Each structure stands twice: as C-alpha cells, then as structure tokens.
C-alpha cells in the first residue's frame, strides 16, 4: 500500500520552514546543510516550501502588501540557502579524474580502476576510490578508453537529481545567473585541477618557443596523450554533467553555455601549446614530432566538432581547425627547409678513405622516417618540388613520371640534390680514383637503403633505383680506369723488344718495367688499403673486378718474361710479387686500415 501523500503546505508553514534554515539568522540550523544531512523528508519538505512560496508570488493570491513582502523575503532567503546547497553538493561530489591511470598505462593506480563498459557504450560510471594511504577520493578510468569519446559519470545520480532540483527552483525564481556562477566556479576549478594533473600548464607562446627542442619533444609526447584524455573524457564528461543538471531548464542553451564557459579557457590553453609549436622556427629535426602533433589533432578534430558542436563553442572548433592548418603548413615548410639544407650543406672536409658521408646517412635515415608518415604526407604534400638549377648532371635524372605522387617527387628530388652536394664534396679529393670511390660508396648506400625500406622503394620506384644502380657501377668503372690503367701500362709489351725479332728482348728495359710495376702496385696497395668500402658485398665485387683485370695480365706477363729476369743476377729484386702475392694483397684493399696491419693480422690467424 502506497504511503499517503503529505498534506499541502500553507504559506505560513512554508515560510516557517524556509526561515528555520535561514543562514543569516542568529538561530543555528539543526544541520549544517539540508542536502548533506541524508534526511530525504527534510529535503523534500524544504523544496516543497520553496515551491509554495513561489506559487504564491506567481498566482497573485497574496493581496496584502505585508504578505507579499514576506514572500519576497522568504524567496531571497531560500535562494541564498539553495545557492549554498548547490555549491556544497557540487563541491562534495567533485574530484578531478585520476589522470595518473589515464595518461600512464603502467601507473600503480591502474589496478584500482574498474569500469563497466559495453561494446558500444560511451558512458562509463567511474569508480571513486581511496588510495593505499587513505588519501583523497579520486575518480578513475582506464586510458584505453581515450581512443573515443568516453563520458564519465563522476557525480552520483542521486546528487545529480538534487542539483537539478535546486537549479530548477533557482532558475524559476529568477536566480539563473547566481546558479550558473556557482556551477562555473566549482567546475572550472575541477577541470583546472584535471588539466594540471595531465601536465597541461599555462604557458605563453614565447615561453614555449624559448624551450629547448629536446624538452619540447618530451612535452609533445605527453601533450598528445593529455589532449586525448582532455577532449574525449574530461571535456566530454563536463558537457554531459552540464546537460544532466541544466537541460530543458529555462533557456534552451543554459547547459551549453555553462559547459562552454567552464572549459573554454582550458580548451584554448590546451590548443595553445600545439599552436605555439606550429609557428616555431622551422628546422628539419622538428618534422616528425610536428607530424605526430598533426596526426593527433587530425584524429581529435572530429571529436572536437562533436564535443563543441554548438554555436556557442564555435570559436573552439575554429581554433582547433586553424591550428591543424598551421601544422600542415609547418610540415610543408620544414620539408622545403630540409631540401635547402641538403642542397647547401657546407662541409668542405673530405671524409677519410672515401667512405659514406655523414650527410648521406642522415638524409637517407631521414627519408626512411618520412615513409613512416607516408599516409599523412601523401595527403599534405600536394605540390611538386621547386626544381633548382644545379651544374650536376644528376638533374637530368629528375623526370616527370605520370602517376608519381608529389611526395614521391620530393623524395627523388632530395636524392638528386644530395648527389649534387656529394659531387661537389668529391672534388675535395686530390686523387680522382678516390673521388670516384667516394661517389660509388654513397650512391650504393642510397640504393641499398631505399631497397631495405619497402615504402621508400615503392615511392622512389624501381626504374629510378635501376638508374642509380647503373650509376654506382659506372663509378666503379671510372675508379678502375683512374687507378689501374697506369698499373696495366707497366704490363704492356711495347718498348721491351729490340728493333729486330722477338728474341731481342731488352733485359734492362724489362728490369725497369718490373721495377715500375712493383713500385706502382706497392703504392696503390699501400694507399688503397686505407680506403674504405663499408659494404662487404660491394667491397668483394670490386676486388673481384680488380683481380679479373690484373691477375690474368700479370700471369701472362710473368709467363712471357720471367726467364729473362731469372737468368740474370738477383731476380728477386725485380720479380717481387708472385701471382699468389698479388691475390693476397688485393684482399687488403678497401679495409680502411694499413696494409702492414692487415698482413700482420693474416699472419696471426
């Protein structure tokens, strides 16, 4: 059987209830607050009293001026009390989301966090808990939900119901501004505390741009995680809370106004960091972190448009879109700066041994990292590179290929200008053979690096890589001509015979020829053992080519003329090398250490 309905309050009894809870009265109330006392009868009685006084004012049943004055006084007292109750309820049930477990998936707090979620449920009742030391109550939910909008009910439903009951009466009595101001004061402080826990601090653009880039890199990683939590959880949950309290009360946009005014400053503060990074001085080393920022903002933008969908929050949507646009321009600008840096890299000191130049390694590693962001960059890089004049013949290799994306064109252009720069650096070698070896090493490295990264290989294209492979083979041939023509010149027959028949070999000329070969090969061996080909396969291929060129020619020359030397005195003075000696010495080439050291190493093995 249902309990009987309470009797209708009279004006006098309603007035007495309100006056009994008058905070300005010298008489102290029985409890500090109505709603925290837990006495639901007391709560309903007070709300009914407010309703009765308000009804009396609106219905014009109070004809006596004295009664009207009493009613107005009672309403003012009631509104002051409800304002306090509203503030106390919000404060009592307000705690920032526990961001340790949100941002750090390995946080010790995570084990305490349990959430109830369905496959598509976006509303999570978050658990409030006390940590191991019995400290403050915190609202916590796992970071894994930050990949989508996830509204958290951080205030219990019964408290929401009480807050809404208070707001309804304050708005009905014309105290909308006071009600909203209380809500803004409490909730702003809560959102502020949440963002501080996330590591979002108030910093000016100048403050951010004065920071060392190494520190900013760490901050960017943290900011991305914090932004996901802020937008998808903190702001989305705040919007839900405002709707729960204010929706359909008074003006249709009270809930949205309260939400926007609560989080607007924090949202703009959050975006301020990304905005400052987007307009910072452009440098190649910044590209990948700015791409991370761009991808994060691009990923968040649809959720920003959902969370801040109203006309009141348009400025926040516009700010986010503008920052994304600025990040896009920053990416394009940095890529251009990188191209300029590659083209104009000023080092003039030749690398020892003709090995791979640090610039080549840097550029190719950079390009491999670029391909990690292939999908983003294909969308962002929409124009072909600006071709700059260069005297390097590699310019002709940059041809327009139908279907090649602008990004692929930029990558090939970077290789072209890298070769142009390297060609200039090769001129610092006094020995033309070493200059050819240097270029061969570097072009070969470019090819192998591209082949080792499927995305880079695909974007550059097999056809262009074949051209580069042909180029380093051509450079290997140029090296051989520069070095071995003079060695092979010592093994020619011309100048060894007298004016008559073959039997008229000039022994003195033959001795000089052997001495010339010995000295020339010894110098080449000594010098080129110090040269370096880092790639073992390329090093072995070039040694084989040298052997195929030298060994048959020396074997033939030795076979034809050995007897003439051995029939004279001290033949070992002239025939210093056996075929086996030459084969062994060729193995010393391009190791980057002296021949004597390599020989000692071979003897010790």
TrEMBL record:
GO terms for biological process: exocytosis; protein transport. InterPro entries: Cullin_repeat-like_dom_sf (IPR016159), Exo70 (IPR004140), Exo70_C (IPR046364). The keyword GTP-binding does not apply. GO terms for cellular component: exocyst. Transmembrane segments: none annotated. Keywords: Exocytosis, Protein transport, Transport. Pfam families: Exo70_C, Exo70_N. GO terms for molecular function: phosphatidylinositol-4,5-bisphosphate binding. Residues 223-587 form the Exocyst complex subunit Exo70 C-terminal domain. The keyword Thylakoid does not apply. Coiled coil: none annotated. Signal peptide: none annotated. It comes from the Eukaryota. Component of the exocyst complex. Belongs to the EXO70 family. This is Exocyst subunit Exo70 family protein. It comes from Rhododendron griersonianum.
């Amino acid at each position: 059987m249902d309990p009987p309905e309470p009797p209708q309050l009279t004006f006098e009894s309603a007035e007495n209830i309100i006056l009994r809870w008058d905070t300005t009265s010298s008489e102290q109330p029985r409890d500090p607050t109505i709603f925290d006392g837990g006495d639901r009868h007391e709560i309903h009685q007070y709300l009914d009293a407010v309703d009765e006084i308000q009804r009396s004012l609106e219905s014009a049943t109070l004809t006596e001026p004295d009664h009207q004055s009493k009613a107005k006084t009672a309403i003012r007292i009631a509104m002051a009390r409800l304002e306090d109750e509203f503030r106390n309820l919000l404060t009592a049930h307000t705690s920032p989301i526990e961001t340790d477990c949100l941002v750090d998936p390995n946080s010790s707090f995570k084990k305490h966090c349990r959430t109830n979620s369905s496959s598509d449920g976006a509303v999570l009742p978050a658990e409030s808990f006390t940590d191991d030391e019995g400290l403050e109550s915190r609202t916590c939910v796992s970071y894994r939900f930050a990949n989508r909008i996830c509204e958290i009910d951080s205030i219990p439903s019964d408290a929401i119901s009480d807050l809404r009951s208070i707001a309804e009466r304050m708005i009905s009595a014309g105290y909308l501004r006071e009600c909203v101001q209380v809500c803004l004061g409490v909730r702003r402080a809560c959102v502020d505390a949440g963002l501080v826990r996330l590591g979002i601090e108030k910093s000016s653009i100048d403050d951010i741009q004065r920071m060392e880039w190494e520190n900013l890199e760490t901050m960017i990683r943290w900011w991305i995680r914090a932004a996901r939590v802020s937008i998808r959880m903190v702001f989305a949950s705040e919007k839900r809370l405002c709707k729960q309290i204010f929706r359909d009360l008074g003006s249709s946009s009270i809930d949205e106004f309260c939400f926007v005014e609560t989080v607007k400053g924090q949202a703009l503060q959050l975006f301020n960091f990304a905005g400052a990074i987007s307009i910072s001085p452009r440098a190649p080393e910044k590209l990948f972190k700015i791409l991370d920022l761009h991808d994060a903002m691009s990923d968040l933008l649809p959720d920003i448009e959902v969370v801040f969908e109203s006309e009141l929050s348009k400025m926040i949507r516009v700010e986010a879109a503008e920052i994304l646009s600025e990040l896009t321009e920053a990416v394009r600008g940095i890529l251009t700066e990188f191209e300029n840096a590659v083209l104009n890299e000023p080092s003039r000191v030749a690398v020892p041994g003709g090995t791979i130049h640090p610039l080549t390694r840097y550029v190719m590693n950079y390009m491999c990292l670029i391909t990690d962001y292939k999908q983003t960059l294909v969308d962002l890089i929409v124009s072909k590179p600006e071709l700059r004049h260069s005297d390097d013949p590699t310019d002709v290799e940059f041809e327009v290929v139908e279907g090649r994306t602008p990004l692929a064109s930029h990558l090939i252009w970077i290789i072209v200008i890298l070769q142009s720069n390297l060609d200039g650096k090769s001129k610092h070698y006094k020995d033309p053979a070493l200059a050819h070896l240097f270029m061969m090493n570097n072009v070969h490295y470019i090819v192998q690096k591209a082949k080792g990264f499927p995305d880079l290989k695909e974007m550059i294209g097999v056809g262009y890589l074949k051209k580069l492979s042909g180029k380093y083979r051509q450079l290997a041939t140029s090296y051989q001509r520069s070095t071995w023509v003079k060695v092979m010149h010592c093994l020619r027959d011309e100048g060894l015979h007298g004016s008559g028949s073959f039997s008229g070999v000039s022994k003195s000329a033959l001795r000089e020829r052997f001495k010339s070969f010995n000295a020339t090969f010894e110098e080449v061996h000594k010098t080129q053992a110090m040269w370096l080909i880092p790639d073992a396969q390329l090093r072995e291929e070039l040694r084989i080519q040298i052997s195929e060129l030298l060994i048959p020619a020396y074997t033939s020359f030795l076979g034809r003329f050995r007897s003439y030397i051995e029939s004279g005195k001290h033949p070992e003075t002239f025939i210093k090398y056996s075929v086996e000696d030459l084969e062994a010495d060729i193995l010393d080439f391009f190791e980057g250490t002296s021949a004597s050291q390599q020989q000692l190493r071979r003897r010790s093995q």
